[in-house]
Specification:
By secondary structure, this protein is mainly alpha-helical. It is built from eight helices and no strands. Helices cover 73% and strands 0% of the residues.
């Protein structure tokens, strides 16, 4: 009984599925390494001296090793964003506007996350004024709040494509949409920690999607839709 060998195009799409899955899993693992065991952040209403103490602590996200791992995690997530957008573009068809918005939103998220001054504040912590430390903290938190809106747009657009094309199980698309809407609405009160729930939902979605893409790669991929 003869079997048809996969074409070079099919092999390329299978490889892209694998790259997307590995990048998704890798970004989650690296973020966990960067964040686990870090010094707890002070509350927004803490005295200025507490923010200075925070930046002088050796185990903050902005410390040398953790900031390096965090940066690598963000670059790995950029791979995930672009690779997933390409997969969704093929599934969506013409015009691929939702997958394009997802790609731009993901890149905007990465840009906003990196726009804070926490690394510089940690580097100069010994000479830092407490009020400057407070400002650096507030600026980084505000930038991250704006970044979560972009991340919500990425998740919602990805979920929309998944639900409408059934490229992947529909529940995965609805999970992404729910997470995206929650992340965007969390910007209304950016100093409130209610955003943590949709944020954790998003990273669970990344893990689930990456696992399903690995399974799809194992069983072959002729068409993503």
């Amino acid at each position: 009984m003869s079997t048809t060998a996969p074409t070079s195009d099919t092999v390329a799409w299978r490889r892209l599925c694998r790259v997307t899955a590995v990048a998704g899993l890798g970004s989650v693992i690296l973020l966990f390494v960067a964040l686990v065991g870090t010094h707890a952040e002070p509350p927004f209403n803490a005295p200025a001296d507490e923010f200075l103490t925070h930046y002088r602590a050796p185990n903050t996200v902005a410390s040398d090793f953790r900031s390096f791992v965090f940066t690598v995690a963000l670059v790995t997530f950029a791979w995930f964003v672009v690779a997933l957008a390409i997969l969704l573009r093929r599934a969506e068809g013409e015009p691929p506007w939702r997958s394009s918005i997802a790609a731009v939103s993901g890149v905007l998220f990465l840009s906003l996350v990196q726009s804070g001054n926490e690394v510089a504040a940690t580097f100069r912590a010994d000479d830092l004024d407490p009020q400057i430390a407070r400002y650096a903290f507030d600026e980084s938190q505000a930038a991250f709040a704006n970044a979560r809106v972009a991340l919500g747009s990425f998740a919602a657009c990805c979920g929309w494509v998944i639900v409408s094309t059934r490229f992947l199980p529909r529940w995965l698309g609805w999970l992404a949409i729910a997470s995206g809407v929650g992340l965007a609405l969390g910007r209304i009160s950016w100093s409130n920690y209610m955003w943590l729930l949709p944020y954790l939902m998003f990273w669970l979605w990344v893990l689930a999607l990456s696992g399903l893409l690995l399974r799809r790669n194992d069983h072959g991929l002729d068409q993503p839709s």
